[in-house]
Structures are given as structure tokens and as C-alpha cells.
Amino acid sequence: MDNPYSGPERRKSERVDAAFTLTYSIEKPLILRVQVGWEDDIDALMLNLSELGMAIVTKHDIPSATELYMNFIIIDLRSEGEKRIHHMEIVGLVVSNSVCPDGSHRLGIRFDKISDEDKQAIRDFVIGRKLPSS
Question: Which of 54, 91, 113, 130 has an alpha carbon 20 to 30 Å from 22's alpha carbon atom?
Fold first, then answer.
């Protein structure tokens, strides 16, 4: 894996660790979608999440500038009722790709198409994860 950045935080929104499964498909470029085999639901594991993006681990070598359609559910145990479970469909752009020791790939993804409702659900999740446990 690339050497981790050890300087000051560069992100514009706070991120938290998150371990949710998700599926994604490659939207663009079309040639990459053909090379991966036209898969629509590729499984991955989310590592962290913020209002502006996420990091995932996948077995596929997806280059930067690839547009992904992602589908996942956030379960926020600190929320109640309808806010506890939130289904999201978000389009994002791969901004980094690091190879992990096991050969998988850690992708940094910036959200490009996200609804206000999804952004608020992520904001609530991040804030809830930063609160001390009761």
C-alpha cells in the first residue's frame, strides 16, 4: 500500500470508520466496464465515510477518474425509527487506488451525485459516531 499521509488533515468534511458492505458498478469509462465483465453488483467493503466521500476495499483494480454507481445501507444504532436504516444510491469518482498487502485495492471515492437526504443521513451518522457512548 502507498505510504500513508502523515501531515495535517486535508479533507473538507469529517470522516469516521465504517464497516458496511456495498455493491458498485462501473459507470464510466465503458471500456473498463467491459474489461471487468459487465458486472453490475460488485461487492466491496466500506472502510470510512464522510459527507464528501468514502474509502472502500475491492478485489478489482479500478483506476482514478472511474465513475462508480454505489448502493449501500447505513445502519445508525444511535438513531431511532426511520432514521435508523438508510438506503443510499450514490455516484462517485475514484480519486485514489492503493494496493493492499493481500492484493486487494483500497479506493478513495469522492461523491459526485448525492441527494441532500443522503448527505444529511451521512452527516447524522458521522456526528453520532463522534459522540461518547452512553
Answer: 130
3 state DSSP class of 40: coil
Q: Are residues 58 and 44 in contact, defined by beta-carbon separation less than 8 angstroms?
A: yes
* Rounded Cα distance, 46 and 22, in Å: 7
Per the structure, the count of domains in the chain is 1
In a domain, 12, yes or no: no
The CATH number of residue 86's host domain is 2.40.10.220
Q: How far is CA 11 from CA 22, 53, 68, in A?
A: 23, 10, 20
- Report the b/e string of 15-53 with b at 16+ CB within 10 A: beebebebebbbbeeeebbeeeeeeeebebebbbbbbbb
Q: Say what the pTM is.
A: 0.80
Residue 24 resides in a domain: yes
* pLDDT tens digits, one per residue of 98-122: 999 999 999 999 999 999 999 999 9
